[in-house]
Amino acid sequence: MSILAERERSRSPLIGAAELAEFGDLPAPTPHTEAELVALMGLLTVTKSRIETVTIGHSRDADSLAAAEAFAAAWEARGGRVLASVDWPETAASWLRPARRLTAEAPDAWVVAAAPLGFAQLARRLRHSTDWDPARTFAFASLRDSRLPALAGPDTLHGLRGATTDGGAWHVRHRWVMS
After folding, report:
1. Which of 36, 40, 59, 176 has the lowest tally of Cβ within 10 angstroms?
2. What is the band of 8 on the pLDDT scale with cuts at 50, 70, 90?
């Protein structure tokens, strides 16, 4: 490994103030819809998915918490297991603690209800410090923001999938959010 690659690998994944300023104001989460919850459940239960256990991650705002709780209730009602529910603030010193808690149980999938900024920060830490896989991560519509892949960094979110408020689906392909 080159010295430059090693330096880049060990660098803090935090988003700096100057970098954040380039993205403008990011939206706060809004209440989830029933169609969104049904679509999210559908993404996790497609034929041959074999997803039985999930860990749920969410921002600390009321709408993200409500979405996480609604998903947990629906998931458990269909016989699935929630291994953990992890929350995080919108700003943190390193994001390492929530990243480790989110990945500690080795779930089949992760489900996220969050604000874009906090999740971008957490996703950077997840990719930098854990074995988290965005392709095994499913999100509510609050993360369907075209700026999110760039904010999180190159290919940090590649494979992330989610539901739209009207019951559709979206996914991240490299630096694009596709519906």
Report:
1. 176
2. very low
